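Hi support team,

I submitted a single chain yesterday and got back a structure, but I'm not sure I'm reading the C-alpha cell output correctly. Could someone confirm the output below corresponds to the sequence I sent? I've pasted both exactly as they appear in my results page.

Thanks,
R.
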Amino acid sequence: TPAQTNIAIRLRVSTDDAAIAAVVTAAFGGPDEAALITQLRTDGDMVAEFVALDARAVIGHIAFSRLNVQTGSEALRAVALAPVAVAPDRQRQGIGGALIRHAHTCLRDEGEDLVVVLGHPAYYPQFGFSSLLAKLLDAPYSGEAFMAVELKPGVLDALKWRVAYPRAFAGAH
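Hi R., thanks for writing in. Yes, this is the structure output for that exact sequence:
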C-alpha cells in the first residue's frame, strides 16, 4: 500500500512535466497518452493534475480535464479522468488507487460534481465508478468501460445529460 512505501501525493508543478511524460509513456507503452496530457494543458482544458512521489521522484500521475455536461439550461461541473499512470515497476502497489481517492477528495472540495472515465470495468468500480450511472450521459463513449461517479450524490438526478469532451480527445480514440 502507498502508506507502507512512503508515497506522497501533491499537485503537479511544471518542473514535474518531463518525469510525468516518462512515467506515462512507460506505463502505456507509447507516447499517445503523454501527448494527450500536453495537448490538454496547451488548450487550457486541464482542471487538475496530481503526482505520486517516492523520495521526490515522480512514480505516478493522474489528470482531469474539463467536460461540458448539460441538460437544457442546467450544467454540471464535470471532469474526465484521463489518464492515470504508475511507473511499471511500481504498479499493483495501490498507488493508482491512492491517486484516484486523493483526487476525488480534492475535486469534491473544489466544487466538482461529476467524474467520468473510460477505463477497466473491473478496476474503477472500487472507487465508486458505475457504468449504469454513465448511461445517463449522452457521450462519445458507451459500454461497460464508460463509467461515472457523482462527487455530489444525486447530481445527475436521473436526467439525460449531453457530454462534450475537450478537443484533444478527438485524436485519442
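A quick pointer for reading it: The chain has a mean pLDDT of 93. Let us know if anything else looks off.

Best,
Support desk
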